[in-house]
Amino acid sequence: NAQAARATRAANTAQSLANTAASAARAARDAANSAADHAEAAAKAAKAAADGAVKAADFAATATKWANESVTAAEAAVKAVQDAQAVEQAARDSEAEKLAQDTEQSLAEAREMARMEADDREKARKATTQSDALDAETRDLIAKAEKAYAAGDTAQTLSAGRQAAMNLISTTIGTWSRDAAEHALAGADEDLLAWVAADRQIAQNQDDRETVLAVAKVSTELVADAAQAALLATDTGAVGTFLTTGITAAAAEDNRVAILKVLNSSPGKAVSASAQAALDDGSPQALHGFFATYADNVKEDDEAAVFTILNTAGPYTKAAAQVALEGPTWMRRDFVSTVCHRTAQLDYDAATHVAAIRASIARAAKVAQDAQKDAYEASKAAADARKASTEAAKWADKAKASAAKANDYAIEADANADAAEKSAKDAQASADKAKAAAASARTAARQANYSANQAVASAAAAVASASQ
Asked: Phi and psi for 386 in degrees, rounded to 5?
C-alpha cells in the first residue's frame, strides 16, 4: 500500500546515504593506515637515532622529519574520520527529513479519507433514520387501512391503502410484496381493497418464506434445521416467528462457539469484555448481541493497540501509526494486523545499516587514533634523541590521550556491531510476522469471498423462485 511504498523509498534513500558514509569510512581507514606507516617509519628512525651515537644529530633530524610527517598523516586520518562521521550524520538527518515529509503528506491523505468515512456514516445514519420513519409510517397506514376496511369505510381504506402500497414499493426488498403492491396500485379499487384485505399478507408470507429459504442455504446446520422446520410447519405464523426470534435462538450454540474462537485469538480488552459478558449471560439475544457490537469493540481495541505500538516504535512504524490514528477505521485495523510488522522490519533494517556503518567508522577512528598515538610516540622518540625532554613529555601525553581514544572507539565499534546483529535478527522476526499476517489475511479474504458467493447464489435462487 501507499504507506509501505513510501517507507520503502525512504529506506532506499537511507541505504544510498549509508553507502556514501561507508565510502567515507573506507577513505578514513586508508588515511589512517598511511599515517600508521609513516609513524612506523618515524619510530624506526627515532630508534636508530637513539642507538647511533656517532651520527646522532643526523639521525635525530631524520627522525624528527619522519615524526612530523607521521603526525601530519595521522591528523589527516583523524580529519577523514570526522568527515565520515559528518557524512553519516547528514545521511541520518536527510533520512529523517524525507520521512517527515512523507508522513506529513500521508497524514493529509489520511485525514481526508477519515472525513469521507465520517460523511458516509452520516449519510447512512440519515438514510437509516428516514427508512425507519417510512417503515413506521407504512405500518401505521396499513393498520389504518385494515381498520377502515373492517369498519366498511371504503374511502378511508383506499386512501390509506394506496399510500401504504406506494411506500412499500420504495422500501421493501421482497419481490412478492413489491409485485402485489404494484398490481394493487395499477388495478381497480377492488384490487386495492383485496390487497388490504388479504393479498398484502399473502405476499408478505411468501417473501418471508423466500427469506427463510435463503437463510437455510447459507447458514449452519442448526439454523438450517430450524429454518426447515419453520417452512414445513402448518402454523402460518411459524415463518414470521423464525425470522423475528427463532433464528437468533437457533444460532445460539453457533454464536457461542464463534465467541469462544474470538476469545482464543487473544483479542483486545473491549472485545474480550464483551465476549465474556455475552457468555456469562448465555441467552440467545446476548450471544447475538455480541456480534452486533463487535465492530465498535474492535475499533476501540485497535486504537489502544496503535497507541501501545507507538510508545516503543521505530521511526517508520511511528510514522505509520500516526497516519493510522488520523485515518479511517479500516486503516487502524490494517496497521495492527499487517502494516506494523512490515514497518517494524523497515525500522530494523535501517537500524542494521546505521549500526554497521557506525561500526565501520568507529573502527576507522580507532585506526586513526592508533596512528596518532604511534606518531606522537615517534615524535617523543625524536625529541629524546635531540635531548628535548619538555617536548618529549608533551608528545608522551598526546600519545596516551590518543591511546585512550582508540580504546573508546574500539568499544564503540563492538557495540555497533552487536547492535547491527540484533537489528538484523529483529528484522527477520518482523518479516516472519508480516508474512504470517499476510497469509492470515488471504485466508480470511478467501473465506469471505466464498461466503459472499454462497449468499449471492442463494439470493439468485430466491429471486428465481419468486418469479415462478
From this structure: -90, 0
Q: Interhelix angle for 315-326 vs 56-150, to 10°?
A: 20
Are 317 and 350 spatial neighbours (Cβ–Cβ below 8 Å)?
no
DSSP 80-101: HHHHHHHHHHHHHHHHHHHHHH
Q: pLDDT value at position 305?
A: 93
Q: How many helices (H) and strands (E) does the chain have?
A: 17, 0
Distance of CA 233 to the CA centre of its chain: 51
Residue 265 DSSP code:
T
3-state class of 148 per DSSP? Answer: helix
**What is the C-alpha separation between 257 and 251, in angstroms, rounded?**
10
The amino acid that residue 271 corresponds to is V
* Torsional class of 153: left (φ above 0), alpha (ψ -120 to 50), beta (otherwise): beta
Burial class (CB in 10 A: 0-12, 13-18, 19+), 410: middle
Q: For position 445, what pLDDT does the model report?
A: 43
How far is 267 from 336, CA to CA, in rounded Å? 12
* Segments of the chain with pLDDT less than 50: 53-54, 420, 423, 427, 434, 437, 440-468
Contacts of 185 (CB under 8 A, 6+ apart): 162, 165, 166, 169, 192
